Amino acid sequence: MLSCRRADAYVPGLLGAWLAGATVELLPNVAAGTLDRVDADPELSYVLHDDPARQARSSKAIYVPAILVAAGTAPSTFVGAAAGAAPSALATTIPVPALAVRMTTSGTTERPRYVVKTAAQLLGELDVLVNLFPRARCVMSTVPLSHLFGLLFGALLPLRFDARIVSHEALLPADVASVIEREGVDLLISTPAHLRAMAEAPMPRDLRVISSGARMPGELHTGLATAHGWHVTDILGSTETGGIATRTHPMHAWTPLPGVTVSAPDNQLVVESPWGGAPRVEIGDRIELRADGTFHYLGRDQELIKIAGKRAATHELEATIRAVPGVTDVAVLVHAMLGKEPRIAAAICVAEGAPSGATRSVPRCAGSSMRCSCPSSSRSCRGSRAPSAASSTARRCARCSASPRPRRRRRP
Q: What pLDDT does 244 receive?
């Protein structure tokens, strides 16, 4: 099992485990419960990590930085081509066992489940990506490497590029900007949640960006290009299928990756991919397929709602509310109740110093009864953290990761 926050421990741990012939399970953390599960599972040999506070917690825990120091290869700001290893060996001879990694889905709409990726699937997708994107010299990722997107674009693709991988712990836009400038980053791997905070901050110009993990709002894509001159490529994909399609402009249609076939029976997205978990994967997304094989993304099934008998999409409502002066971010959520009409709620973040009645002009959804428990005027909301995973019944604030709280109803 592998749970390293920093790339200078993650990449050596990953390649070392593969070199030993082990299947690697990617973990988001080494919390006490996780280590208890490791200790109780006889099939799990070790957990490789870079959290010194957890080393004494489990007999199976291995602190990767200590191993690197003992081997005479102390962790560095860079890994990959700049770490002293032969770039050609890292780029073309990654020793991947037949069953390469196991990970869990995000569980945003149901209980998380395991997904296994084989060597053929990972390397097959890498072969396509390395020919699809211009070669980079230095790559920085704000995406956790425990996710498939982070693994592919933040670790394996840079290795295939012979690129340097920046190891960092930057979260706030100012810190990210400092790392980009100091290390000469020319490719940033990120998510819309992180990029929204960067769009409003001073950042280096003319950077290439690859984004995935959530919907990229059109105004954010355009804002990054206008404010910073960034060239953003949006990736549509999932843990089960890997990459599906790309686009470089919010008004353009999505283009399937080479080798990927997309169909749309009843406008439902169906993916056939050589690196997918099954020959044919049905995804809970709606698309409008065009004659040339490209498509327009219409949203997830659960994003479609009815207000006063009229159909609407939650992302369109979010865009409308976000345009209200004083509103910095919003998350619209739907409470589905058996036998009753779904109730719609909105968690809204208001800018510091905004008039107290700023949200009064927000279009009110039927059944709206929740508001963000952490407006952006509070100290704990910095607007730069990624949104926490949502579920079918609750969604966290897209800026501060705080749970919405229901309004107290007055008793009659």
A: 95
- Report which of 102, 104, 146, 98 is spatially closest to residue 118, judged by C-alpha positions: 98
Q: What is the pLDDT of residue 369?
A: 38
pTM, to two decimals = 0.74
**Which stretches does DSSP call E strand in 74-113?**
78-80, 99-104
Give the C-alpha separation, 287 to 294, whole Å: 10
- 254 close to 248: Cβ distance less than 8 angstroms: no
Tally Cβ neighbours within 10 Å of residue 351.
Answer: 16
Question: Which residues in the chain are classed under CATH 3.40.50.12780?
Answer: 118-301
**What is the CATH code for 118-301?**
3.40.50.12780
All CATH 3.30.300 domain ranges of the chain, comma separated, are 308-406
Q: If we measure between CA atoms, which residue out of 240, 259, 292, 231 comes closest to residue 131?
A: 259
Choosing among 3.30.2420, 3.30.300, 3.40.50, 3.90.580, the CATH entry for 308-406 is 3.30.300
Residue ranges of E strands in 212-280 = 231-238, 242-247, 255-256, 261-263, 268-272
Which residues of the chain are under the pLDDT cut of 50?
81-92, 107-111, 364-410, 412
